[in-house]
Amino acid sequence: MAGTTLPTPHDYRFAPAFAVRLVGLSLVALALVMFAGTAVVALASINADVLVVLLGVGVGGVFWLGWWLRNRAYVLRAEDDGYVVGPVRGAGVKRARWSEVSQAATTTVHDIDCLVLHLQDGRSTTIPVEALALDREQFVREMQRRLRAGQGHRPLG
User: Fold this and answer.
1) Nearest by Cα to 34 from 48, 20, 23, 22
2) DSSP 8-state secondary structure symbol assigned to residue 13
């Protein structure tokens, strides 16, 4: 398998547990919005049908978020010439060419296992491996192969 080329573009998607956590947070947010909406309706003597519309839109939004996380969102998109980081907070550089990467290293940031791609200009990209729907070791091996292919088989520092 080491000699086979990896498919590009390739999306490394969110782990199901991570997606469920985000959907759960959106449900809590919806509950808070409904609580505030109920208070506004009660105090301002607004028609209670507004709450039904608010709930419908909110539930639709939660379902859409779940669908998007499952089918469209990605942590990292690997392309032929580089990578793009999806909606990951604190990732650093969100887009770079493979040729700009000087070193790849694994580390722990705030008790989260991460892969850090160090760029030649001193900047870096941090990818939380826990957020991926892929085994950590497999992801690191694939990234090493992508880096070697993207750098013309130059050794990585």
Assistant:
1) 48
2) P
DSSP code string of 75-123: SEEE-SSEEEE-S-TT-B--EEEGGGEEEEEEEEETTEEEEEEEETTS-
> Among candidates 27, 49, 24, which has minimal Cα distance to 37?
49
Across the strands, what pairs with 126? 116
The pTM score is 0.80
How far apart are alpha carbons 14 and 53 in whole angstroms?
Answer: 31
Q: Which of 99, 132, 130, 134 is nearest to 117 (CA)?
A: 99
Backbone dihedral region for residue 60 (phi beyond 0: left; psi -120 to 50: alpha; all else: beta):
alpha
157, 103 Cβ separation under 8 angstroms: yes
Residue type, 21: R
What gap in Å lies between CA 61 and CA 79, rounded to an integer? 30
pLDDT tens readout for residues 21-73: 999 999 999 999 999 999 999 999 899 999 999 999 999 999 999 999 999 99
Rounded distance, CA 58 to CA 79, Å?
Answer: 35
